[in-house]
Amino acid sequence: MKFGTKVLHAGIEPDPSTGAIMTPIFQTSTYVQEGIGKHKGFEYSRTHNPTRQVLERNFAALENAQYGLAFASGMSATDTVMRLLKAGDEVVACHDMYGGTYRLFNRIYAENFGIKIHYVDMSKAENIVPYLNDKTKLVWVETPTNPLLNLIDIQAVAQITKAKNVWLCVDNTFATPFLQNPLDLGADIVMHSATKYLGGHSDVVMGALMYNSPDLHQRLAFIQNSAGAVPSPHDCFLVLRGVKTLHIRMERHSQNGKAVAEYLQNHPKVGKVFWIGLPTHPNHDIARKQMRDFGGMVSFTLKNDSMEEAIRVMESFEVFSLGESLGGVESLCTHPATMTHAAIPKAEREARGLTDTLIRLSVGIEDIEDLLADLAQAIG
Ligand code: P1T
Predict the structure, then answer these.
(1) 98 is an active site residue
(2) 211 classed as catalytic
(3) 50, 136, 145, 221: which has the highest count of C-beta atoms within 10 A?
(4) What is the pTM of this model?
């Protein structure tokens, strides 16, 4: 099945009792049993729920995976992966990543549970080698990274992790399975903030994990049920509905992302432009190798690199809305230093190249003329 057919049909059957084409919202906590141990495969909705089960099967298919799990947020999906580890274990993580992931790793797993996290610039895969030892259990990759759009060669990292018997988890939120399939490139687990492009309509918070190993399935499904960070049936319905147009939306996000990045690159008042489709991107060849297109996430700075000017521009937008999050149909503008990456201390942020004046755009699917006109009037 091709991708555009999978988003609509994989794992989804008409409701057997009514023929309803849309998967019903099974808003129930429990299921009546005929007798002790006699039930229809559903006992309690933390463990299994029919609406969630359909979504999980669809999620699995999108990443060419055997298994999919849905969670109450992207962070709870990441937290589930971290719960595979024990005190004393070590993680090697990319040094540019969503601020909330960094906060979970440092403030909870490192500070409270004795897990050591090494942050590494993975623009060259071999940079991880000196950090791998007998205690290393997990390599965490986000590519493209949030918010600097750095790229990491998944296949090259996977070759190293496989040889060392270390799990490789890729946060595929920015790319989506339409643009990139990390499992096909050798990753063990794919993680998504489904809040973003998978849901696509800024109306739900959700996370997902996809993977192939039955051993991982046993462990991860056990944690999902034991820790209980599951999404509601209604949220599962919303994401099932949203995901049906993922391929169409991603085409338009990528098209608009290209036009916005090229516009910014030619604007006399714009400083740096971060978009993975620009041939000037330092790792553009990795994007060409492992992705099908380049998406709609664009970050930039202004030549007048003052806070006042960055704030003036961000507050002048009329079509781009100022706010956290990304991946919805409507365009958003985010200030990473005070919003999504505020949890990372300023000195560490700046050491990674994330300045206070960086502006991040999630380019939506509006008409491009209106987006470019909005950039023109805001930048001035
Ligand atoms: O927000 P949540 O669904 O819990 O997902 C967390 C998360 C994980 N990974 C990446 C790459 C992310 O971008 C996010 C959430 N990011 C934002 C809210 C943001 O505006 O960057």
Answers:
(1) yes
(2) no
(3) 145
(4) 0.98
